[in-house]
Structure formats: C-alpha cells, structure tokens
C-alpha cells in the first residue's frame, strides 16, 4: 500500500507573505500571494519539472514544500509524513529524507568552512556516523560520487570553479542519504559546457540511488530533457501539468504556448520560420492578482468569462491537467 | 590596403588586452581580428571569461588602465583607429557613433535621476539640442521602444520600471543620437524568456528601420540563431570559429562549437540521448597557452595541438574559418 503511494503529495498548498505598514506597530495591509493553492504529486524515482518566469512562485513553492517556509494553508506529505504537523524526531526524519540543491553555488556554501565541514554537516546534525574518521570516509565517498577528488576535502569553496562548487552542493544534499531532492535552478548560474556535466551527474545519481527530484527551472529546453512530467506556474498557481512530450507537443494553456514559442531554437532556419506569440506587458503583482483567470490581462484569447470566473483545474487527456476556460 | 579596409564599418585587427593583477598577467584577449559591415548583426558567442565583453570594452576604451592594458592591435571605425583616439575624441564616438547596452539595466541606469533626464542628457551634450527639443525627442524614443504613455513616464525613476522596461529605456538611450553601431552585451540574460523575445524583436525591428549594425554578445546559442547574420565563437581569448549563421549551425567545424551545440538540449525535440558534456573547465588565463587552448578538453586532439596554437584559417570559400589543426570530419590534420 505505502509502496504505491506517491513519494510527495501536495494539496492546495498556499504561502502568503504579509505586507505590513508602520514601524513600531506593524499593521498587516495585504499579502504577497506567492503560492496560492497548488496541488500535485511526485512518484518515486520521478523528476517533476516546475517552470515559470521569475516571480511566479516556483522557488517559494519548493521551499514551502520542504517546510523551510511555514505554509499558510494546505497539506504536504513526504513519504507519508505530514510536513506541516511533524515535530521532533518526525521532523528530523523528513529533513533527512528531503534535501535541497540551490541555484547559486557561490552563495550556498559557507566561504569559511572547508569542503569537509560543509559536506559532513548533515552527518553531524543527524548523528549518522559516530566517529570523525567514519565521517571523513563518508565525505570521501560522496566526493567520489559527484566526480570530485577526495583529496580536495580540506580546501575552501573559493578554490573551486562554479561547476565544482555545484558538485559540492550536490554532495552535501546526498550526505544524509535522502529520497527526495528539490533542485532549485541548479544549473542556471553555470556555463553551457558545465551545465551538461551537472545535469548528467544528477541523472546518474538518480539512477544509482533511486532519487526523486523536483526540478525548478526557467530553462524550458533543459526541463524537457531532464523531467518526466512538467508543471507550468503563473503568478502563484499551476496552469498546466502533463507528461513532458505531451506538454511540449500539445500545450493547451495559452501561457504555456507563449512560453514555449519564446524559447529560442539553436537552428537559424527553424527559429526564423516559426511564429512567436509575443506576450504584451509584464507579469502583474502577486499582491493584487487579476480576478478570474490570472493570465487574462495578457491572454490573446481572453473574454468576459476569463476575467470573472476562476478556471477549473481539469483533466483533458490522460495525465494532462489544465486550468483554462478556452483550452 | 587602406581602401580595402574602408569597406567595413568596423575592422578590428590583432586586438590584445591584458590585465595586470596581483596573481599575474591575465591574457583576456589574445590577438583577435574581425569586422562588422554596415547594417549587419554580428553575434559573439562564448562562455564567461572568453573575452567577448572585454574585447568590446577595449574597442571603446572603456577598460580601466591600469590594471588593464590594450597591448596591441587596431580597431578601425570608418577607417579611423579608435585605439589611437584621445579620451575627448572617444567621448564623441561613444553614444554618437557607437552605443552600448549592458546586461543589467538596473545598474546601468542612475537610480536618483528621472528617465527623462537620463535620455535627454546625451541629446543635450552630443546634439546641442535645447531642453524642449530634447524632451520631444525623448518622447519619440520611448515610443519607438514600445513604452506606453511616454510623455508621462519621462518623469519616472528607474525603480518604477520592470526589468524588461528598463532594458527598453536603455535601448532608447542608446539610440538617442542615431548610432551606426550598437553593441549589446548580453542584453537579455537577466530577463525571462517571454521578455527576451520582446527585446529581440524590438532590436531587430529598430535595426531594420534605421539600418544600424549590431554586435550582440551572448552565451546563448539559441538567441544567436534567431538574430545574427554572422557569428564569432570565442574561447579563452581567441576566436575559434567564424561563419555565416546558417553555415555555423548546419556545418560547425571547430570541436568546441560542435561540442557546445551537442551540450544543448532542444525545446523542439524529444529527448534521444544523454547530453554530451564537455569534460573539464576552460583553462586559466594567467599564461598564454603553448598549444591550442581547447586541447585539454578536445576529443579530436592530436600531438600537434599541444605544441602549436592553430591560426584562424578558412575551411571553404564562404568566409567560414576555424582555428583548429584537425579536420573533425576525417580526423586527419588539415
């Protein structure tokens, strides 16, 4: 029974950040509705992509999912444990099973710590190995796993290149032997030739260790390559979710269509021949999101219904979900 | 010889730029030569530290000296060597003849001055317009780059604009004096794809309207495919391949270009294999490489590659050149 259950289940998750006024007596005058009711599940061994433009709430979603931000409402379960109600040893277990890889390999490693201190921190926190020498062995093993020499463990982060630092970040995430890793834009700060190295490493680790990933990214080409299913976010909500080829070949939501048509193709003839849907304007503020469908002010198909009614989250084909009145 | 180079809008020959740092001399640009024609778009592609931005800044004498040093070469703009110009002469060129836009529109705009003040500044100094005419021209410019209510927005400050809108303002400022060459240094890297598409369309439209040449610096081979007429691929301070855009994508010849294209996933194709990654990392620029700078990461490397740095030589008669000792198709020396 528990084996067939998805590893991660998210139901109606919201995260609102208060907007306050006043210095001493702060009054709440509104809320940034960064994540406003998202639901999805991730199967064991699967990679789910979460894409969207900056400010759409994808990073907040990833962090709220792991309990790094307390959720405003909704439910998240990771391997049967409820993240919002877990306390004490149950919380520690979730923290051990669910890890995170961050975007910026320069900011996410403490510059005053050696690689050994950084990678062994989860081991110390979770008391996973008794002696220092056992921990050194484990760190050496992890370094090998991510393709770095074990001789480098006494060095500091600044002695490594961007790609190598990201490997150190991956080693730290793997230290506690997790089941689930949230990868928050893990390659967007890296050069093209290094991106492929890190992506291949993440795939190899998934095969070897049976990992489950939530892959947060804005690079739609890379997401198509690495993810099994893809969810598209816009202004705090998921507007479409489908298996990757279904989503890229038969997008239903006008926003997904526009997003996909904006991605440049590295082939001059093909790139120039296709029709781009150029969206007017910018993403509206999540403090006061548009009524009805949140995309309606920029949508080429919008009519009165769209500005009035919130579209239902419905299934249009096996595994293909969309929230749009016109799809 | 003089007359031959007059055909080009900009002709750069053997440009070398060094930086003298406490760690040693950084060889940032190592003798690159290229040209730009009137009205064409040249893309310069490469990874961080390959010298693509430094070479452009060198041409405009925007390199801080010291630690920087332009160690050699020439940059003929309409036949005049920019590298020999005085600071005063360069002030005439910058903005009037050659304009530049940068990656981060927030840090390139002054946060305490209104947009109107910043756009009219160039018009007042370069074009000797009066305040009234400059305001009028500024409204036209904002309108041209697609900012609605341009007259009202002149009194707004940069923070009141979104990232994409700020880049439009930057473009309006760059276009103020009607330059013949626009250098765009990763103008869309900080922007989302939908906004990137807007900016690419905008620059292409304006280029066609005013017949301006564009040098577009980027690391994104996807963007290049959509905008460029010709492409230079740079690696570790050298040009390793140059070709017309269609030739480059249909028939890439340098192992680095080939590897870069294979390392790129495609939004329009189903996944058919693992990504091909390029092992290792770019070399340190603290010494000039003895052989080919890509030799240590190259899968076609031969003995000769480690001994001697290949010059940029044509592969065919269509202006397609590579700096490589090996014919990748046959695996034999060229």
Tell me the fraction of residues in β-strands of chain A, as a range. 15-25%
Assembly type of the chains comes to heterodimer
- The total of helices of chain A stands at 11
Q: If strands are numbered along the chain, what order do they take across the biggest sheet of chain B?
A: 6-7-8-3-9-10-12-11
Terminus-to-terminus distance of chain B: 29 Å
User: How far apart are the first and last residues' alpha carbons of chain A, in Å?
Assistant: 36 Å
Radius of gyration of chain A: 21 Å
Strand content of chain B: 15-25%
- Quick one: biggest sheet of chain B? 8 strands, mixed
Mean pLDDT over all positions of chain B: 89
Content-based structural category of chain B: alpha/beta
Structural class label of chain A: alpha/beta
Count of extended strands of chain B: 14
Enumerate the spans of chain A where pLDDT stays under 50 for 5 or more consecutive residues. Answer: none
The number of helical segments of chain B is 13
The average pLDDT value of chain A, as a whole number, equals 91
**Strand numbers in spatial order across the main sheet of chain A:** 6-7-8-3-9-10-12-11
Q: Which protein chains are joined by the largest interface, and how many residues does each one contribute?
A: A-B, 44 and 46 residues
- Helicity of chain B, in percent? 25-40%
Query: Mind describing the biggest β-sheet of chain A?
Result: 8 strands, mixed
Commentary on this structure:
- The complex is a heterodimer of chains A (327) and B (334).
- With 327 residues, chain A is α/β, with parallel strands linked by helices.
- Helix content of chain A is 33%, strand content 24%.
- Chain A has an 8-stranded mixed β-sheet, with helices on both faces.
- In chain A, helix 5 (162-174) packs parallel to helix 6 (192-209).
- Chain A starts with 7 loop residues before the first strand and ends in a 5-residue tail after the last strand.
- In chain A, 47% of the residues are buried.
- Chain B has 13 helices and 14 strands.
- Chain B is α/β, with parallel strands linked by helices and 334 residues long.
- Chain B is 33% helix and 23% strand.
- In chain B, a hairpin with a 2-residue loop joins strand 4 and strand 5 (80-81).
- In chain B, the strands form 3 sheets. An 8-stranded mixed β-sheet of chain B has the order 6-7-8-3-9-10-12-11, sandwiched between helices.
- Chains A and B meet through helix 6, helix 7, helix 8, helix 9 and helix 10 of A and helix 9, helix 10, helix 11 and helix 12 of B.
């Amino acid at each position: 029974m528990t084996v067939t259950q998805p590893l991660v289940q998210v139901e109606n998750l919201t995260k609102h950040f208060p907007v306050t006024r006043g210095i001493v007596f702060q009054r709440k005058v509104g809320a940034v509705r960064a994540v406003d009711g998202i639901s999805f599940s991730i199967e064991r061994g699967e990679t789910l992509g979460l894409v969207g433009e900056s400010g759409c709430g994808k990073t907040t979603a990833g962090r709220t999912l792991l309990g790094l931000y307390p959720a405003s409402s909704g439910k998240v379960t990771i391997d049967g444990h409820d993240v919002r109600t877990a306390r004490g040893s149950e919380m520690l277990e979730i923290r051990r099973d669910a890890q995170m890889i961050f975007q910026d390999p320069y900011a996410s490693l403490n510059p005053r710590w050696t690689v050994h201190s950084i990678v062994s921190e989860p081991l110390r926190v979770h008391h996973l190995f008794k002696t220092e020498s056992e921990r050194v062995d484990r760190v050496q093993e992890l370094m090998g796993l991510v393709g770095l020499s074990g001789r480098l463990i006494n060095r500091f982060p600044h002695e490594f290149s961007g790609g190598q630092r990201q490997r150190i970040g991956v080693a730290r995430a793997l230290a506690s032997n997790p089941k689930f890793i949230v990868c928050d834009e893990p390659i967007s700060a890296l050069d093209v030739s290094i991106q492929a190295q890190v992506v291949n490493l993440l795939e190899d680790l998934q095969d070897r260790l049976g990992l489950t990933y939530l892959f947060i990214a804005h690079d739609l080409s890379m997401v198509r390559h690495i993810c099994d299913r893809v969810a598209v976010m816009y202004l705090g909500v998921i507007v479409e979710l489908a298996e990757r080829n279904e989503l890229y070949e038969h997008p239903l939501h006008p926003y997904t269509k526009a997003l996909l048509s904006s991605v440049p193709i590295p082939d001059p003839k093909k790139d120039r021949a296709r029709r781009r849907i150029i969206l007017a304007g910018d993403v509206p503020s999540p403090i006061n999101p548009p009524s009805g469908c949140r995309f309606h002010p920029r949508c080429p198909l919008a009519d009165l219904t769209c500005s009035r009614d919130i579209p239902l989250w419905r299934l249009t084909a096996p595994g293909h979900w969309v929230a749009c009145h016109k799809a | 010889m003089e007359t031959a180079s007059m055909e080009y809008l900009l002709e750069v020959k053997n440009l070398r730029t060094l930086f003298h740092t406490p760690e040693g001399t950084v060889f940032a640009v190592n003798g690159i030569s290229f040209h730009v024609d009137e009205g064409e778009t040249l893309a310069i592609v490469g990874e961080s530290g390959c010298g693509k931005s430094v070479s452009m800044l060198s041409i405009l004498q925007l390199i801080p000296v010291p630690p920087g040093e332009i160690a050699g070469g020439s940059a003929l703009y309409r036949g005049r060597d920019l590298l020999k110009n005085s600071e005063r002469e360069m002030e005439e060129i910058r903005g009037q003849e050659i304009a530049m836009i940068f990656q981060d529109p927030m840090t390139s705009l002054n946060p305490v001055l209104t947009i109107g003040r910043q756009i009219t500044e160039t018009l007042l100094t370069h074009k000797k317009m009066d305040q009234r005419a400059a305001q009028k021209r500024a409204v036209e410019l904002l309108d041209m780059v697609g900012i609605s209510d341009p007259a009202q927005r002149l009194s707004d400050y940069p923070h009141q604009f979104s990232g994409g809108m700020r880049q439009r303002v930057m473009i309006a400022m760059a276009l103020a004096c009607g330059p013949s060459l626009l250098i765009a240094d990763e103008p869309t890297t900080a922007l989302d794809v939908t906004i990137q598409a807007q900016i690419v369309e905008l620059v292409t439209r304006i280029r066609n309207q005013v017949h301006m040449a564009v040098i577009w610096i980027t690391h994104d081979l996807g963007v290049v495919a959509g905008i460029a007429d010709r492409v230079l691929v740079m690696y570790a301070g050298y040009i390793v391949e140059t070709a017309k855009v269609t030739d480059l994508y249909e028939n890439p010849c340098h192992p680095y270009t080939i590897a870069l294209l294979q390392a790129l996933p495609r939004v329009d194709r189903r996944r058919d294999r693992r990504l091909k990654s390029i092992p290792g990392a770019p070399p340190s620029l603290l010494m000039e490489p003895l052989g080919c700078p890509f030799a240590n990461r190259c899968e076609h490397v031969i003995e000769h590659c480690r001994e001697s740095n290949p010059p940029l030589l044509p592969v065919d008669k269509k202006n397609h050149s590579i700096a490589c000792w090996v014919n990748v198709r046959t695996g034999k020396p060229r």
